[in-house]
Each structure stands twice: as structure tokens, then as C-alpha cells.
Structures
1.
Amino acid sequence: PCPGAPPAPPCPGAPPAPPCPGAPPAPPCPGAPPAPPCPGAPPVPPCPGAPPPPPCPGAPAVPGAPPAPGMFAAQKVGKSLVPPVVARKPSRKMRLLAWEKIKPNDLKRSSGNLWESYSSSPLDSKIIDFDEVEELFAQPEKKKVEKKEVAKKKEPTFVSLLDPKRSLAINLITKNLRMSYKDISIAIRSCDREKLNGDQVSGLLNILPETTEVEMIRNFGGPPETLAEAERFYVSLITVPEYALRLKCMKFSFEFKSITEDLEKRVDNLLSAGIKILESEDLKELLHILLVVGNFINTGGYAGNAMGFKLSLLSKIHEIKSNKPRMSMMHVLVESIEKNKPELLHFYKKLGNLSEISKIDNADNEKELNAFSKNVNSIQASLSRLDQESIDRFKDIFEEASRFCSETERKIQEINGLEDRYIKFFVLDKRNYSLKECIKVMGVFCTKFEQAIGVSFYCFFLLLHVRAVLVPRHHVLMSPW
């Protein structure tokens, strides 16, 4: 053919012309069926990515081939099961169906099970409306909330001169007062004990500025409004003259009654008990009875014919056992007094609670009084620095405190003198005994004596009950019991 000329149309029924060697094959006509393969020619290789051709009707399925579109079923691959193929994937994220999957090994061991039977009867995808399932079980979409940008106001910056921990402690105490810094300063200046209670005054004393902190506040060159909270409190506080002394006077006025009443009670109880023991006639007679009983027991021995005994015996007498079970020498003494001297039976009630009083140490009382007296004298010596109105507020309290110190000092010295009287009265060794130890021994003796009285009365009524049961009633009435 001539170059550029179109090919001549083929004649109907005529065979096509053989192709020229090396010439490219003619493109297929659209819609035309493919040419039948030549006998003995190799099959045309499939194009990559092209779908396989549909099977012929009635032809057996090719082993290993996937099911036709729209069908899914569990199929056997050798001895293993393949899960059913789902027609399509959901377009949205679905909720979780919490089921427990059967392991493949369990399916292998159980032949002829339910799940194997599904391989022979594939399920038509039209039975399930996947669109409706997706709509019902899809996870709800989270609505994005648009955050409105709010213009943040710039907080003013304040100048901090103090240590952060120090500032925190100051702020905690001042905030609890629920007063402005100006009102706090006014209450301190006027020593107002109605606006500031004892705990609040103690808190303010704990945060008073040191000398270096006062200088730091005074040397600050900027306006006070630019300072932080703690620094502004100090600015207001240092304007009060003698603020520390005023707070100390207020604290003393709050604590005066509680300190003096407690100390006075301890001193009076110790002095009273010490004097009562020395002057108790009942105790003297009771010890006389005990001496006679002891000499009777020790007759013929080296311990007999004693003129007296050491005070330590009184704290051990309840431990001396008799021949009768659960009966000590203390019970013998109590029974003797019940029968012959019943008026002595409750001698211990006249002496007070010696067990508690024995815990009081006069040396501790003296130390406490000295510290209290020193504080009173220190504040009194500084009162002249205050204005007359403030001095008049505390004048009566400090006069009463001075009188208390003088009176309590006299009582403590009297208690110290009692120790020498005890050593002489009971003939004791001063190296081993003190007033506190003597009262402790007496306290143990009185406690065990009272317990023995209870046991004695219990045994007496128990004996009456036994006699009433075992002896006829007319014998009981005529009995000397």
C-alpha cells in the first residue's frame, strides 16, 4: 500500500491478509469478540491487575478461587476454615461486638461442627441490609466544639522582696484574720482583745518581721501598691509603734488565767497532801497496828521487837502472801481494822488522791514559776514605752501576776521544807527518799488498802450466802453471825 493511504476494505468471506513480518498487530475493534486461539499456540498471559474471567455456567469451581461477588461463606482450605467474606466494609467506625472467637485449633479437633456446615451453603449478601446495620451500630461522631478565644487580661505583676516560704506563711495567717491590713494594724495599735483572740495574736507573733526585713521594706523606692501581699502587710504593720510589745501584752493577758490556775492547783494539791500525811492521826494509828502485827509475826526472830519500820514496807504489804489462798497481809490488816477499829477504815479519803498527786514534781513547778515570773518582769519593764492608754489596759493584769508569783514562790519553798520534815518524821535516808517518793509510797498503800476493803466485803457477803444455803433458816437467825 502507498504510504499514508488508508487500507482497502476486506472482501466479505475472504481470509485476512497475513501480517507483515515485524509489523505491530492491528488494534482490536471495540466490542468485537476476541479471536479464537490457534491450535497448538501457547495461551495468552493475563494482564497484571486484570480480574479473572467469569466461570462458565455449570462448570466446577476452581480450587482456591474466591467466591463470586455478593456471596460469602466459610470455605475449607485443606483442613483449615476460612472466615466468611463480607460483601463490603463499613464506611464509618463501628462499635465493638463483644463476642468470644472460637480458636482454629478447636475447629480442627471437632469435625462436622456447625461452622464447617456453612462452607457448603453460602449466604446471599442481599439477606443483610449492611446500610441499616452500619447506621444502627456505628460509633457516634463527636461534635467539635469551637473554642471561643477569650482575651486574657494581663494580671499586674507585683514586687516580692521576701522569701517565698516566708510570704506563704504570712499570707496564710493574715487571710485567716479576714480583716484588711489597715484594720489589723488598728486592732494591734489599740490592743483590741475583742477583734483579735488568743490564737490570732499567737499567729501574728510568729510572723513578725525581722530587722533585715524591716530595713528591706523601708528601703523600697517604688510605690507600696506594687508590692506583693506579704510585703504590703509589713508596710502597714511597721507603722504601729511597739507592735511586738503590744502583741506580747495581749498574748499574756489571754494566757494568764490558764497558766496561773493550773500551776496554782498543782502546788496547792502537793502542799495540802504533804501536810495531811504528816498530821493524820488515823494514819499514825494504822501504822501502829501494822507495827504490832509485824512484831507478832517476827517473834523470836532477828526482825522481832522492832521500834519502827522503813516506809518502803507500805508499798509491798499487799504482796506478802498468807497461808490462805488469795489472802495477803493487807487483807489481814483490813479485817483487823474492820472488827476492832472501823473508824479507821476510810482514812485514805482524808488524804486526797495521792496516786495523782504523787505525779507532781515540785522541781518542775519551780521551773515553770521562774519562767513565768521572768516573762512578767520583762514585759513590765517595757510597758513604759507604750502610751498611757495601753498601759492602763494591762495594769491590773500585771499587778495580779506579780502577786501570784510572790504567793506561789512562798508555797513552793514551804513544800521544799516539807521534805526535811518527812525525812525526820519517818526516819528516812535523804539520799534515797524525796517528798515525791514518800507521797508515791503512800499513794500505792492507800490504793491497795481500798482494794482490799472491797475484797473483804465481797468475801463476807459470799460467806453469808453460803451459810444461808447450807444451814436451816432458824439456825441462821440464832447464829452469832
2.
Amino acid sequence: FWNRKGWCHSYSDCKIVPWGWGQKWYKDAASGAMVRDHTACCRVPAILLTGPAGLVVEEGDTAALSLVLAAAPTGDVTVDVASSDPHCRPSPRRALFTADSWSGAQTISVATLFSRFYDACVITAHVEGGAAEYTTAADATFALSTTDPERAACVEKRLADGTKWHDLDGPVYDCEWYAQGNRCLLQGNGYRNEFTAQEACCQCRDVAERDNVPAFEIETGLAAGEVAEIVEGASTTFTVYLGSEPTHAVTLSVTSDNADCQPMGDVVFDGAHPWFMPQTVTVSAVDEDVDDGDQDCAITVEVRETEDEGYRAMLPAQATAVKTLDDDVTGIVLSCEAERVRVQEGRNTTILVELASDPTEEVVLAVASSRADCRVYPTELAFAPSTAAGGGPRFDAAQAVTVTAVADKVDDDDQTCNVT
């Protein structure tokens, strides 16, 4: 009876189980709770990030995780994916589920990089926005371990050779053979351990050299083909990684091909900032006042300066795209006492006039009244762009137009004038 209509079988977070004669109960796999109402079990909005239990990935390989929604959403759901450590790179970083195509699992690939500093990471999926019922859904996480067989074999070899190695605090990171004194220094977690077996030390050095490939990488956190969009006055960020430990400080320049996008200054990896930790780059959209439409920017990162021979070589520049969203409009702004103003004959009122955005050239406005009973002064207003030499009234400097009700001594009733 628990298979009747196949309730819940299409959901991975709960299943029907028999519980007494003629009764149907449902077990939530996440909490282990038993509930009678299958809708409470099967239709709770949740995100699920799954993969093989006890997953271990060799560094340099890629693992595949599955990201799904537990219940049908009322609208789109955007899920961001992040890693706890830089040597695990999930892709895509953002997944979109729609109300029409929510039930299929989306694959999250996790590329692992060679690392002397990390051997595990946690991948987290977080609802960034969308359908209201999913905004409170808990984050989904998946932990995986990474291993490097070559480095492990190197450690075993040193131990077998009877070296002086001992584990003071954590894994072995690097070693280098020093001809002077016929000794090897192993460096890790701030400790130096000496070795007398040159063969074992050089094996580890070979592994270290394999990992030590000069490179840098941009990580935007966006899905493939997605472009970061920012409203004028706001900013976005991305991260920059080095691929290996440099022998000297490395300075990366960050530039934009469009003045509407302003990246922060250079990125420097030196003693004050460990090479294996990512650095954040901020790109701001300039809040100018010109109605020039949305702007596309290419942000380029390249090596500016270093004494490291590998990084000083012609490493190719890398770029990421950013779009600024213009919040300015072309228009005329009028300010007066009210939309309809009553003025007694012989008296006047004032209308303040300004432009809604900064023009690229001088703008001259003609001012006129629909009837002779109302006279306007002046009949022209000129606004200069803020970049114009010699100044002139700016677009946001209100200019006054005086509207006078003509005293004509004729009993012609009240007159309505439209000032344009």
C-alpha cells in the first residue's frame, strides 16, 4: 500500500514506508521524522546538493555533484554555489530553476587544483533569490576530500629511508635540497625539518615543481556566459588567484576599457598577503549624470611587475565582462506651487526649470504661453554640459521663468494659460 500512486517517489528527500496495518507514513530522509501527510514531507521547499558518499578526488581531477529542488516553485529560483577553499572550483557558480523546468537535476562540476595547503573543501548551495517560498530554504552543503598520490608516495619514501622527518603540525608542504651541508629542508606550517636522504627530498621537490606552474586566474562566481550587471553608483566584485608560489612579489594590474567602469588599484601578492589566498577586486560603476545608455566594459588583469622569472614571462592577460545600467533619463523637470496655479491679473508666479540629466552639448529651451493673457520671461533658457569650458548653467541648476497675468481691464472672465 505504500506504493499506491507512487506518492513521493519522485522526490529524493523523502520516501513512503509501511507503518502499521492500513496506514501510510512518510519519512523525511534529512530529519528522520515520520509524518502522516505526504504533502508535508514531499513538498517542503528545499535545495539538495548530492554526490557519492565519502567522495575523494585526486587533485587535478573533476567531481560531479547534483543540484535539485525538492518541490515545485511558484516562480524562478536562483541558486549560488561557492567553495570553502580556493583549490576547489565549482562550475557553474549560479544555477537557475524555472517553474516550468524545475524537476531536473543540474550538474555542478568541481575542479580540484594541486595544492600544498588544502586537502578538503565544502561546496555550499545558497538560494540567492526568486520564488518567495524558497527564500528561507536552508543552504545545502557537500563535503569532499582531495588527495595527491604522488605527494603521499614522496612522504612514504622519506619515512622508509629513515629520515629525521616527523609530523609537527599538519601535512608536508614543500622541500628543497641544499647542496651546502648536504641536507634537505622541508617547510610547512612555519616549521623546517632537515633530511639527510637526498633521493627522498628530490622526489618531493619534483612533486612541488609539478605544482609550481606560474599562472593566475579570474573567478567571477557567475554562470558561463553570464555578465555582471551593476547600476550606476553600485559595484561588483570578483577574485584573482595565483596558480603557484612566486619567488618574489607579484603585482597584477586591473584596468577597464571604458571610463564608466572603475576598478580598484593593482593587486599585490607579497609577504603581507599569502600567494595561495584569493584577493578580491572591486569594480564600481561611475555615477555620472549623462543619459548615455547601458555600457559594456572589459576588465583586464595582467602581470604588471615582478622579479619572478616565471611570472615575468608573457603570461596572457585575462578579462571579464561587466555591464553598467544607466539610471539617467533625458527630460525637463518643472517645479512650481501646484500643477494649476491661480494668479490675479497684474501679479506673477515663478516656474523653476532644470534638465533631468547632463547634456553632452548645449541645450536651449524655448518658453511660451498658450494665451496672450499670460506673459513669460525669459522666452529662452540655455543649459551647458558640465564638461563645457567657461561654465554656464548646469543641467541641475534651476532657472526661473516668471509668468505674469496681464492686467487688461477687460471683463473677459478667468483665462487658462498653458506654459510650455
